[in-house]
Prior knowledge:
The structure is a single chain. By secondary structure, the chain is an alpha/beta fold. The protein has 2 domains: 344 residues, 3-Layer(aba) Sandwich (Alkaline Phosphatase, subunit A); 93 residues, Arylsulfatase, C-terminal domain (2-Layer Sandwich), CATH 3.30.1120.10. A hairpin with a 2-residue loop joins strand 8 and strand 9. Helix 4 runs parallel beside helix 5. The radius of gyration is 22 Å and the shape is globular. It starts with 17 loop residues before the first strand and ends with a helix. The site of 2-acetamido-2-deoxy-6-O-sulfo-beta-D-galactopyranose has 17 residues, from loops. 2-acetamido-2-deoxy-6-O-sulfo-beta-D-galactopyranose binds next to loops.
Amino acid sequence: MIWGCTSSYDELDSTPPNIIIIYADDAGWGDIGVYGSELIPTPHIDQLAADGIRFTSAYATAATCTPSRYSLLTGEYAFRNERAQILTGDAPLLIEPGSYTLPKMLRSAGYRTSVVGKWHLGLGEDNVDWNSQIKPGPLEVGFDESFLLPATNDRVPTVYVEGHYVVGLSDDDDPLRVSYSEQIGNLPTGHSHPELLHYPADNQHSGTIVNGISRIGWQDGGQSAWWDDEQMAFEFTERSQEFIERQKDDPFFLFLSMHEPHVPRWPHPQFVGKSDAGLRGDVIVELDWVVGQIVETLEELGIREETLVIFTSDNGPIFFDGYYEGSVETAGEHRPSGPFRGGKYHTLEGGTRMPFIASWPGAIKPGMVSDGIFSQVDLLATLADLTGIELPNEAGPDSQNLLPLLLGQTEQGREFVVQQGAELAIRKGNWKYIPNGEIASRAQHKHSMGPTALSTGQLDPIPYLFNLEDDIGETTNLADDHPGIMVELAELLEQIRNQPENRLLRLNSSNQ
Ligand code: NG6
Ligand code: CA
């Protein structure tokens, strides 16, 4: 039992490292070379794995973005907060200001903390005025600095927010206005001006056109601040490099939250055609380039050895998610979920089992592969141990300290992990229980996993029990063969649903 053990980090003879988490958006296991992708070259991410440890049972807590990010930053399963659902671009801040978060914890350990890139956790209070101070946001939940893509790259507002303000608004502009309920202003939309579109979109993505791409929602004014999709990866990279350079002599935490390969996919021309899996593959090459740039910066500054770099993703992959940009047609034999069934939106393994790599040359041996179960919700307690912080009792209710696992000192990980899609599923050891297959494989709207995974993503409205050891693709339902195991897992899931995992673990260990 990991609970309550002393810090394994004490045994390491060095100071806590700088910490960088590079978070991809909708990248699947099968999108990364070292996890088996053959059509998309990802040499820099692969190198990170060669220099560190790669996990085969690491999970995002949810199969969509907002809940996964919520869990990563708070150490709490997102299903405990009913607002932790995919947010609109004008939603208020989801994390309660002042609550205990990963950046807040690291700040108390002496780190300077920065978030660059996709946020999607809401900003401000109700009815945000984008032309004045936008508050509360990341600065109120533990970050010292922030440079954000506020929601998703397919949602308005299509501007960056730095600290409390939109970047680049000019006095000469009309005020920037955003709406998710009705069309505002007279700017062309996907519906009114389809001839202006780079590629067609579904109904939901046919709001205001920005850079030839219609978005979810409507926007008017503030035109000088609108981002350039093609430059986004460069923008985030430069902001990150500038932060790292400024902080090179003092501890820092950088949450670099990239937008690739989320829709709309629009790589910088430098990456077009650089994969054999169409535009979706090309933006993953772009993402890989960013990882390379960050590592190179650390090397140039002489701080690579003392920096822990984690690469993972917020939820499983998808081909069609609103734009007819050809990802389904050009994917070839590419299998973005690798050997797993399903993808984004699903509680099937493809939805939440993520590529997860940790590289810290000063302390983690190179080239390791670990099968221990880890969840992104564990980063809070794990990194607290790493940095010598004792968590307050109420902090990170579902976050387990798995530092020895992260550092490759043991393969002992979680006993069980909850996976959230349209409903909850649970994996314990190699058993995976899904209460209702139809809900587990449900997305809110038309989507496509592409030619290879589409036909296998749907399940019936019955309970499922899979043995992942022999059946990693979740194809054979063993519910009728092992009713006892099913009941046990169903009860465990109910227990976790009703109380924080840590409390449950404490109760169990005191009963033994
Ligand atoms: C969905 C969007 C989808 C994507 C997703 C969020 C529709 C029809 N689809 O609601 O395109 O934006 O939200 O993705 O609106 S996530 O990775 O940020 O969770
Ligand atoms: Ca996502």
